[in-house]
Give the backbone structure.
Amino acid sequence: MLIGFIAIVIFGGLLMSRAFYFQIIEGGRLRLLAREQFHTQIYFTPERGNIYSSDGSILATSINMPGIAVDPLMIRHKLKNAEKLSGLTGISFKKIIEILNKKVQFAWINKRVSAALAKNVGKLRIAGVIIVKQPVRYYPDGKLLSHVLGFVGINDNGLSGIEYKYNNFLKGNRRALKVLHDGLGQYIFIRGFGLRKATHGDNIYLTINKQLQFITQYYLDREAKATQSKGAFAILMNPNTGAILAMADYPSFNPNYYWKYSARYWRNRAVTDDFEPGSIMKPFIISGALQDGIVKPDTVINGYHGSYHFDGITVHDVENKFGRLNINQLIEYSCNVCACQVGMKMGKKRVWYWLKKWGFLDRPHAGLLGESSGIIRPLSVWSKIGPCEESFGQGAAVTGLQEAVALSAIANGGLLMKPYIIKKIVDPYGKVLFKAKPKIIRRVINTKTDKEIKYMMRLVVKGGTGEYAKLINFKVSGKTGTGQVINPKTGKYYKNKYTASFMAFVPYRHPKLTMIVVQEDPLKISYYGGAVSAPVVRDVFKNALDILNVYPRGNAYGEQFSQGKDSGGGNKVKKAFVRHGVMSDLKGDTIYKALEFFSRYNIKVKIYGSGFLYYQSVRAGSDLNNKKTVILKFKPRGRSS
């Protein structure tokens, strides 16, 4: 007995010591291992932050899209119910029955389904079938601004554009559901246990003016289709602040269905694509020559009737064969021969210095994805004729955004402004995390030189190569460009491929808007920027000034138009005010489609909201004669809370 008692005491002591070791000494480590082995989390997508235009209209938002999940342990008559679910969802019976036979309490059938399908599944009233709503990205205006906004993948991560670049702001904290799992890795769902609340993402407000974006996209699309351009883009800016008001690309894509388009449709050509600018580079080089005293506005240069031979090369003017021109006329008629001679007078170092000062060697840092810094050759590899080539936009490649920023400096009096597209970032509780302020990078030219180059660009539109950009009540200053395209295989220029560009600002004396339009390889009408890109700028300026309530101080072309002279290109000017027509029922239309209807009338359209039209101030069937203003209200379709 005594021996047995002693054995029991010794054995009990050993057990207690081991228990002390595992529970006290190793307890923390073992509990952590247990949690890792038997606890896990199922994550649910939080609501992503919205993207707004400058006036607060929604450009990108999240809508609740249903998904179908099941608790297999609750489902009875599995064969019968699997057949029902398979018939409605289109998922194979075999796949459904595999899910229903799992020894778990939560499993997905399909994470994203239509509202109609979710409703029909709910009508089956199968115990254990759960309809789970999760936010999904939605772009109410479809293709509008798609290249800037980008898109979001199925895992709620931004894959392109603003959505990608600012993903950390837009994407909130995920909602997590804690679950247990057994030794086989099967989920054990305990109802009401471990739900962690999601945090919404931050909201981003862009500098984009939605109405200006619509008209810019509309007129760019119309002209690019007419010319059968391979691609095109347009940028509209406020020259006094650097804010980007509109940025359009052609062809565009619908980010709601981004996977239906090849990747080449996704890029934002205005900031990623480098192109030889051609003659739109002349104002920047000539202004440098004016600033440095190399030439004056009345300096006369020989145009050699369109053919200038020097150092083994020949510089041509394509159509106009000029004799002697002063510097004003050089810009007005876009003479390559004269520009070449100015460039050679400036020399390599001076031309390179002005390219750098205008910002053509730097990335703009506007807050957009994929901004390029252009391609300017190092000064050390410039040939002797380099200054000549650069003076009329050959030998260098720039982006549309770089050109727009430099043009804005001419428009605002000589100050290079930092461009920006993010107006502010606000957290879900209304706290402003970031707010943009206009920033001057540097003064490029003095006010005297600025006035001189502005006047030269005014002549371009008044009677030079940019006549198609004329407006009746506002004076426009601009510059045309036709750049050659290099064959990447041979390194030589194509004989029949060009980029057609036009840049301008308005009004002439106190500019409120700057704009550049570039078309890549237009096949129809013309390949000259003054013929196919200037009309886009004209039509956008005409509508944009009205939208911004900018009023003329006088009739810019009153005498010319009253006499019925040509507006450029031989087209007689006709009265633009169309007052005939009947109002259509536009309910259900997008803003873009509604604006397309009103584009033929001289009626001011006020837009509220985004998405699809549900209210129009003029009833369908009403006479549009004498109507001055129409109010249209839009809202997203099928949005649920």
Notes: Residues 35-40, 181-196, 557-580 have pLDDT under 50 and may be disordered. The chain has three domains: 42-206, 210-562, 577-641. The chain has 21 helices and 25 strands. The longest helix spans residues 2-25.
